Amino acid sequence: MDGSIQAGYGARPGTSPATLRGEGLVFDGFGWSKAGQPRNREARTQTPLELSYNARCVYVGNLPPLEILDNEALKQFFQRAMTERGWHDTSKEVSPSSPMVIGVYRDTSGKWAFLEFRTVAEATSCMNLTGIMMGSTSLVVNRTKDYTPISDELYPQLQAAGVIGNTAVAPNGATVITEDRPGVAIVPGVHQSMAAGGGPSIAGVPQKLMDISRRVRKVFIGNIPRDAPEMTPEYMLAFFTEAMTAANLLDPDRSGPMIIWAFIEQRTKGFGFI
């Protein structure tokens, strides 16, 4: 930028910001106008890719250093892993001219990145890759913090535009957790949402409410022995259900030299604050 402002919304070509502010004009992120003066501006229609962006993005953490894994290598790693498992949209070609991952946004620290997939279904399918090993490193795959599932109102439009997609583990973008996903238990009474990009939900509870409240229904569980083979997700679910029922939530005698951690997702917000 050379400091000049393009014409539009009260700005004159080549006029500096200081001059415009001196004339009482303010910049709102879109253009310059008189303070307090309403503007009639046609709202720009968002594209299907923009509308579905948060549902097509995936967080990948615990990445190796950039010197070992650059963005292109990261992209190829996930495309290969998805294709080998048959989790890609078979109606779409996977090639340099038609990539499954259309964007890689790496954090400046290099420790994590966002992957933008071409379809919601492929992004949802990628959730099953959490824990995948890259050399000696176990990668973390999760939804982004601003993840938003596709609404029922937008679904037909985005499906027609081809951004919903379809895979073996996420038919028409719906969430299906596969049995070979490491560390995931299929919990009785909890079904997988059929909303595109949605997460596990409780029967009778609107998916949108489940997604909005998911963070406040999660609690951190630490000091779990790494060398305890019985600590499966199924065992932990039964253990904490029984412990919470008995109001005995802490074992003071539990200790161990090495620890790992896990998240238990509660059914309601109230349980999460116990």
Description:
The chain has 274 residues and is an alpha+beta fold. The chain has 3 domains: 1-44, no CATH class; 48-181, RRM (RNA recognition motif) domain (Alpha-Beta Plaits); 215-272, no CATH class. Helices cover 24% and strands 19% of the residues. It contains 9 helices and 12 strands. It has helices spanning 17-22, 48-51, 53-56, 71-85, 120-126, 155-161, 207-213, 233-245, 269-272, and strands spanning 25-27, 32-34, 57-61, 101-106, 113-117, 133-134, 137-138, 140-143, 190-192, 200-202, 218-225, 259-265. A 4-stranded antiparallel sheet has the order 4-5-3-8. Strands 1-2 form a two-stranded antiparallel sheet. The protein is globular, with a radius of gyration of 24 Å. The model is unreliable at 1-14, 177-201 and 248-261 (pLDDT under 50).
Summarize the structure.
With 274 residues, the chain is of the alpha+beta class.
The total domain count is 3
Succession of helices and strands: HEEHHEHEEHEEEHEEHEHEH
Q: Please tally the helical runs, counting DSSP H or I stretches of 4 or more residues.
A: 9
Write the CATH fold name of the largest domain. Answer: Alpha-Beta Plaits
CATH architecture term of the largest domain? 2-Layer Sandwich
| Large-scale geometry | globular
Give the uncertain stretches in residue-range form: 1-14, 177-201, 248-261
Radius of gyration: 24 Å
Secondary structure: number of strands: 12
Sheet with the most strands, sense and barrel status: 4 strands, antiparallel
Q: What's the CATH H-level superfamily name of the largest domain?
A: RRM (RNA recognition motif) domain
The termini sit apart by 53 Å
Protein name: RRM domain-containing protein
Domain RRM: 56-146, 217-274
Keywords: mRNA processing, mRNA splicing, RNA-binding
GO molecular function: RNA binding
